[in-house]
Structures are given as C-alpha cells and as structure tokens.
Design brief:
mainly alpha; 2 helices
Length: about 90
C-alpha cells in the first residue's frame, strides 16, 4: 500500500528533476561553447561533432540529475514512512 503512494510522488520528483536537468544542461552548454542555443541534429549549419557532444552532455546531465532526485525521493519517503519504495535489498 505504501509503495503505491510513492508512485505519484515519484512522478512529481521526476518532473522536477527533468526541469532542473534541462536548465542545468542549457547553462552548462552556454558556459562550454559560448552559444546560447544548443545544436539541433536537423540544423544543416551545425557540425556533427557539436550535435553529438551536446547530446552526450545532455544525456549525462539528465541521468545524473534523475538518479540524484530519485534516490533523494526514496530516502525521504523511507524516513517519512519507514518503508523503502523501491526494490528490496538482495
């Protein structure tokens, strides 16, 4: 029952993490490249290298932020309820 209550909380935490990750990526890309817009794969004026580097950086930032937010949410849920919302330890 308690794990079912975590699902909406997990979705909310994930959404907030996604918004933060997007802002963090844009700020990081601007700091590294000096460009305010990120390269688009369908834009002919963008180099393949820039497109792939931006995609790799964006993926790494999203994965990092997602994992951090999910873990913090699970730990907070456990502290509040005494139940771990994810898979049990093996």
């Amino acid at each position: 029952m308690m794990k079912a209550l975590y699902k909406p909380l997990g979705v909310t935490i994930g959404s907030l993490g996604g918004v933060l990750a997007g802002a963090l990526f844009k700020r990081t890309w601007k700091g590294l490249s000096g460009q305010s817009e990120t390269p688009k794969a369908t834009r002919a004026t963008q180099s393949l290298t820039a497109v792939l580097l931006a995609a790799a950086l964006e993926g790494a930032i999203y994965a990092f932020v997602k994992a951090a937010f999910e873990r913090a949410g699970a730990v907070g849920f456990q502290k509040a309820t005494g139940v771990w919302p994810g898979e049990p330890a093996r």
